[in-house]
Design goal:
The chain is built from seven helices and nine strands, in the order αβββαβααβββαββαα. It is an alpha/beta fold.
Length: about 180
């Protein structure tokens, strides 16, 4: 299925100045709004905070069909891409990776062990953390573009402080 999705990237309605996303040598998707991780969640969080942004950790794995859908469908929406780039400090971690990463408490773990510690059970998963390090929301799996955009707005506007995600989506006619 992944091959079919990746092969169909050219068939998507992509504007003339936008290219279809690429897959890196590690088998993970490359996005222009991804920031290189410092290999330290506290440093990435500090960098996000310095820019007035929420840290968004994208957990992905090579060969993930729903990751392909995320990149080839939902993240091709220019409004979603712009919203993500302007309001979130997005880094990507490999669900099965070996790279050592410093967690919030200073403990150093391989990406795959950090995923377990953070309760990530599948890919894609988007984990959102605010300046004090608290995880305020998580998107587990693929979401269609209108839902994904509304959930990004939910995190950015602090909707999680006053209502459930279901109520937020319902108020926008998405449930």
């Amino acid at each position: 299925m992944l091959g079919g999705l990746a092969a169909s990237a050219g068939a998507l309605a992509i504007g003339p100045s936008e290219a279809a996303p690429q897959i890196g040598r590690d088998g993970l998707w490359i996005e222009d709004f991804y920031r290189p991780t410092s290999a330290s969640i506290p440093i990435d969080l500090a960098n996000a905070s310095a820019e007035g942004k929420v840290l968004s950790i994208f957990w992905e794995r090579a060969g993930c069909e729903y990751c392909a859908m995320l990149h080839l469908v939902a993240l091709q929406d220019p409004d979603i891409r712009d919203f993500m780039a302007r309001r979130f400090f997005a880094v990507r971690l490999n669900f099965y990776g070996d790279t050592p990463i410093v967690d919030l408490d200073g403990r150093v773990l391989k990406e795959r062990d950090l995923a377990v510690r953070h309760g990530v059970t599948g890919t894609p998963t988007m984990e959102f953390r605010i300046a004090d390090g608290r995880e305020v929301y998580r998107i587990p799996g693929y979401a269609e573009p209108p839902v994904l955009r509304a959930l990004f707005d939910y995190v950015y506007r602090g909707g999680y402080l006053g209502m459930s995600d279901a109520a937020w989506l319902s108020a926008r006619g998405l449930m």
